[in-house]
Amino acid sequence: MVTRIVDLRSDTVTKPTEAMRAAMASAEVDDDVLGYDPTAFRLETEMAKTMGKDAALFVPSGTMGNLISVLVHCDVRGSEVILGDTCHINIFENGGIATIGGVHPRQVKNNDDGTMDIDLIEAAIRDPMGELFYPTTKLICLENTHANSGGRCLSVEYTDRVGELAKKHGLKLHIDGARIFNASVALGVPVDRLVQAADSVSVCLSKGIGAPVGSVIVGSKNFIAKARRLRKTLGGGMRQIGILCAAALVALQENVGKLESDHKKARLLADGLNEVKGLRVDACSVETNMVFIDIEEGTKTRAEKICKYMEERGILVMQESSSRMRVVLHHQISASDVQYALSCFQQAVAVKGVQKEMGN
């Protein structure tokens, strides 16, 4: 029987801490749709200040936060948003900007570090003279950290350059900042400075900082007023949300300071995995709390078998493909958990490799 669980599937799997549960139980609440929930107001005020923006709005999920943000900026059907071909909005959000908002995604290739070439972004902006034929470019989206690139961080210099390009062409800039606090900690740049060039930012509360539910979007007062209306349209008006916001306030107070430790544990795991024959991690890509593990060509096992072996020993990892796995560190993973996972990875490759070679 498995007695030890080490859940490395994502930083979304954390459980509410006792402090969060206590805050939720005692939260002062009211009807937020009517604009009177005091705990929601506290969270939104704090997040707006932290991010250096005028206003904020709590939403149930990062997907809804990104969708609302895109729809506010692209308020005419047939508008176009420029985004990376491997970004979360483009790949993992059900095509919501197109199916719900009638917004056309103009894809630009993401580099290995999560950036898009500035010249390629500018080349993708539609010529207004072609408006009879083309969608109208309204928005550029960035993702920081960039999950599909391994949790890589977009620098403040790069973000500023994209912001300047947006202004030059009369466009808006939205940042999918699901793990923006991870980027801020890793880069050593205050989070408000990191998103200064953005017109809007979505920040996930239930990823890196470990709250149980929700995201916050930030921007100007006018932007948030429009966002609040769209949240109601999409079914995100949830009444006494102070119960959820109370846990998020605890997460902001207690867990942002733990992100640096999460990053160190990710690097420790990556370094250890690179000592396991048959596995490879691009050490340069491990900037925050995510580690992508490749099975080297010629190794006589596949990701599915390794994941199953690990699960039997209480270690949960995510399979990305037949030869790639992903693990994500969070504040409820200890250094001891990392060492245990490393020992099991070593055994998994050795045992599964031998079994396949012997035909078992």
Automatic annotation (TrEMBL):
Cofactors required: pyridoxal 5'-phosphate
Pfam families: Beta_elim_lyase (PF01212)
Residue numbers carrying N6-(pyridoxal phosphate)lysine: 207
Residue ranges occupied by any Aromatic amino acid beta-eliminating lyase/threonine aldolase domain in the UniProt entry: 7-294
Pathway assignment: Amino-acid degradation; L-threonine degradation via aldolase pathway; acetaldehyde and glycine from L-threonine: step 1/1
Molecular functions per Gene Ontology: threonine aldolase activity
PANTHER family: L-THREONINE ALDOLASE, L-THREONINE ALDOLASE-RELATED
Protein name: low-specificity L-threonine aldolase
Source organism of this protein record: Glycine max
